[in-house]
Amino acid sequence: xKQNDLKERLARGETVFGMFLNTGDPILAEIAALSxxxxxxxxxxxxxxxxLENLPLIxxxxxxxxxxxxxxxxxxxxxxxxxxxxxxxxxxVPRVNTPEEARQVVKAARYFPEGERGVASAxxxxxxxxxxxxxxxxxxxRNLIAVQCEDVACLPHLDEIAxxxxxxxxxxxxxxxxxxxGAPGQVSYEAIQDTVAAVLEAVHRHGKAAGIFTKDPAExxxxxxxxxxxxxxxxxxxxFAGTCRNLVHVLRTPSSETDSKEA
Length: 263
Ligand code: 3PY
Ligand code: MG
Description:
binds 3-hydroxypyruvic acid, 8-stranded parallel β-barrel, globular, alpha/beta, 47% helix
């Protein structure tokens, strides 16, 4: 069974970086992995891909040396089970607001005795080539569970959520958070700094890690310096759109203007 050292790196205090994959394109998964990003986060919440489409994306990330994580579309245990059974090395679960919801996620994602994940010989257990008795422990050890704090409703429960065995990362979703704060789209650090501080405090108290999404690499570095360790920077779509926008800007800008800017 393919291992990774993501959780060990987080425990050592390292920062890991990933990108959301929203196109469902295995070639982009390979390119993102080859670039040196630590993880590819396949976005089945907002992206178009389901279980079958995620399988080659996971294979591509593994082949090229990045950790494949799936953002599941919902908290249902059958959804979590299928994404793990096709071989995701972890899940990112949107809008987990209460300790009860966080416990349900752990139950669905961990095998006995840490949870109640259903047993089958699937891709995750190398189609049976990893002995089942070894596999349960290996899977529980390897697979990362990140729950999103992206609704003000989660704020009173941060400490309890961080205390739950099996929860590895509390991940801030600035966009949804800002909407529930009544200021949609206000996602700057200044706008969400109280939540950032509260999540950092809760995870540090319980030896867990904080995570966040940002579109901006400079902001990602800033968050890393603050102690946020699990950082998703942008999406494949955003990256390609930005490159195309810049390309067209250069192509369409009269050369005298670009020359004078370059001078
Ligand atoms: C949000 O900002 O709402 C997110 O879910 C980012 O991943
Ligand atoms: Mg969100």
